[in-house]
Design goal:
211 residues; globular; 9-stranded antiparallel β-sheet; alpha+beta
Length: 211
C-alpha cells in the first residue's frame, strides 16, 4: 500500500491543480482524528464468472484502534477473521487503500493480461480531473451531505475490448465530513452486456457506526 501511494504521488506531480484537489479528497488525511470507536464496513463482492471468488471475499471489514496511534483492519466472515494490517491512524483512514488494492487485485486476477498494465491504468485514473458531485443521500435514520466522484479507468483504453466486462469498470467514491472516517461508500462496478453486474466490489459504512 505504501508503494501505491508513492506511485500516485509521483504521477501527481505532472497533473493539473484540479487533479490535485481530486487526490486530496479521495486520499484525505486526518480522517480518523476524533474517532474513538470501531468503524465497520460491509463488503460485498460479486464476480458473475466466478461466484465462489465473490463469496470468499464478501464479509465485514472492521477498523479498530491500537496503541501508538495505529489503525487495525480486520476482515470478518462468520466466525472467521483475517488481519489485514496496521496503519498509522494519523495519516488517514486506511480503508481507502484497502479498497483500491482489492480492486486492483480482483481485476488483475479475473481479467487476465498484464497485472502491471491494469494497475497503472487504475492508478492514473485516480489522479485524473473528474467532476465532483454534491448530493444528499439517506444514511441510517436521516440524510447526509456527500461529495461523489466517479472514474472509468478503461473508458478510452485501446485494450478495452480485450478486458471483457472489466473494460466497463466504474469506481465511485462517496465521502462526507458528517460521518466518522470520511468514507460513506466505495464501489467498483463493471456491467455485463445485459446491464447486470459482471463484477462488483462495494464497501459501505454500516449505519449504526455512521453517527
Amino acid at each position: 500500500m505504501k508503494l501505491l501511494r508513492y506511485v500516485l504521488m509521483v504521477l501527481l506531480l505532472a497533473t493539473p491543480v484540479h487533479a490535485e484537489e481530486i487526490y486530496d479528497l479521495i486520499f484525505k488525511q486526518g480522517t480518523l482524528t476524533g474517532v474513538h470507536h470501531d468503524l465497520r464496513y460491509d463488503r460485498e463482492t460479486i464476480v458473475a464468472s466466478n461466484p465462489e471468488y465473490g463469496q470468499r471475499h464478501s464479509g465485514d471489514v472492521v477498523l479498530s484502534f491500537a496503541p501508538d496511534d495505529m489503525a487495525v483492519l480486520r476482515f470478518l466472515q462468520g466466525d472467521q477473521h483475517r488481519n489485514l494490517g496496521q496503519f498509522p491512524a494519523t495519516v488517514g483512514n486506511p480503508i481507502i487503500m484497502y479498497f483500491v488494492e482489492t480492486v486492483l487485485r480482483d481485476v488483475a486476477h479475473e481479467a487476465g493480461g498484464s497485472p502491471f498494465y491494469i494497475r497503472n491504468r487504475i492508478k492514473e485514473a485516480l489522479i485524473t480531473p473528474a467532476p465532483i458531485d454534491d448530493a444528499m443521500i439517506p444514511l441510517g435514520d436521516g440524510e447526509v451531505s456527500v461529495k461523489q466522484i466517479t472514474f472509468r479507468p478503461f473508458e478510452n483504453d485501446e485494450n478495452r475490448e480485450r478486458m471483457g466486462v472489466y473494460g466497463n469498470l466504474e469506481m465511485t467514491f462517496v465521502m462526507s465530513d458528517a460521518v466518522p472516517g470520511w468514507y460513506v461508500s466505495l464501489s467498483a462496478v463493471a456491467s455485463d452486456a445485459s446491464g447486470g453486474d459482471g463484477y462488483s466490489n462495494t464497501l459501505n459504512l454500516m449505519p449504526e457506526v455512521a453517527e
